[in-house]
Amino acid sequence: MDLGIKGRRALVCASSKGLGLGCAAALAAEGVHVTMTARGGDVLAAAAAEVRKANPGVEVIEVVGDITTPEGREAALKAAGQIDILVNNAGGPPPGDFRNWTRDDWIKAIDANMLTPIELIKATVDSMMERKFGRIVNITSAAVKAPIDVLGLSNGARSGLTGFVAGLSRKTVRNNVTINGLLPGPFNTDRIRGVAAGQAKNSGKSVEEILKQRASENPAGRFGEADEFGQACAWLCSAKSGFITGQNILLDGGAFPGTM
């Protein structure tokens, strides 16, 4: 299927690895010019080179910086130019017990996983509406649908973003600008390995044992892969998806047991 976005320009945040890289690669494969951001310059350079090599006709721009800071956002927005597609993404806060979290921990989580996406939306959505095309995808978490007890910081911050988008997305769609959430469940990324490492300390099991058990418990019998997440993102960013807005789409291998 031709997704109808060849030649568009995208900003994909935190895209040097994992789900962000999966999204950047999938969009580039559709002919979208991509600006990729990350804090680690070496890893970002390698990832951008990989995307560039696979898609020689596409412009790939690298911006090293922390997208959760004003300076990082300013640099990314300046480099990306006219943005048609925005993929919001940032590393999730650490797991733990809420009794141990300070106000600063909460503010950091909200800054990264709620306020940063809102700031980037604010910087891009009006020009998208003027041009009558825009696709905004927020990578959040399956925890928005079914909270995970040890990820309270993420549960709270990402749910706040989801509530905000629920209202805004109904105002932008008349101008062919959609805003949706992609909610990853267990994917084969550094994030899931980091959570497993924390669980291993408290359980006496190895990280490998925890990961194997968790994968086997998923209805799909495995973890998701970044490239299949990226394909879902690319479709949601396509010209074909203009009637979908304000939705939160689970990619979790069937882990959520509900009907809605």
Automatic annotation (TrEMBL):
SUPFAM superfamilies: NAD(P)-binding Rossmann-fold domains. It comes from the Bacteria. It holds the Pfam family adh_short_C2. Keywords: Signal. The keyword Signal applies. InterPro entries: NAD(P)-bd_dom_sf, SDR, SDR_fam. Residues 1-28 form the signal peptide. The keyword Signal applies. Belongs to the short-chain dehydrogenases/reductases (SDR) family. This is SDR family oxidoreductase. It comes from Tardiphaga alba.
